[in-house]
Write a structure and sequence with these properties.
Distance between the termini: 38 Å
Order of helices and strands: EEEEEEEEEEE
Shape: globular
Number of helices: 0
Length: 120
């Protein structure tokens, strides 16, 4: 129930790269599926990437081939390497623990998020 802390966002030009980090907490981190949400202004949050305890990954079609999610269980960290960014990637990125029951659902606490702005 402790808020995760996201970092690494910033302003980049289209085609650029950025790496986001999320410092999570909890004794069950290593056995929990974690993911990244993207929220564009005025839109609902949607999962763009997820990674299971066994490091099975999921990517939304919109980011597949461009983003890579990873985790470091020893540090309770997850990362999102974002390449070939486009203006549609602009928004706030949040990390959270996830469960999948026909769709993704957040099961942890929300942090402040980190802002990513991609200029055209």
């Amino acid at each position: 129930q402790v808020q995760p802390v996201e970092s690494g966002g910033g302003l980049v030009q289209a085609g650029g790269s950025l790496k986001l980090s999320c410092a999570a907490s909890g004794n069950r981190f290593s056995v929990t599926t974690m993911g990244w949400y993207h929220q564009a202004p005025g839109k609902q949050r949607e999962v763009v990437a997820a990674i299971s305890a066994g490091r099975i990954t999921y990517y939304a079609n919109s980011v597949k081939g461009r983003f890579t999610i990873s985790r470091d269980n020893g540090k309770n960290m997850i990362y999102l390497q974002m390449n070939s960014l486009n203006p549609e990637d602009t928004g706030v990125y949040y990390c959270n623990a996830l469960k999948y029951e026909n769709s993704w659902f957040p099961v942890g606490s929300w942090g402040q998020g980190t802002q990513v702005t991609v200029s055209s």
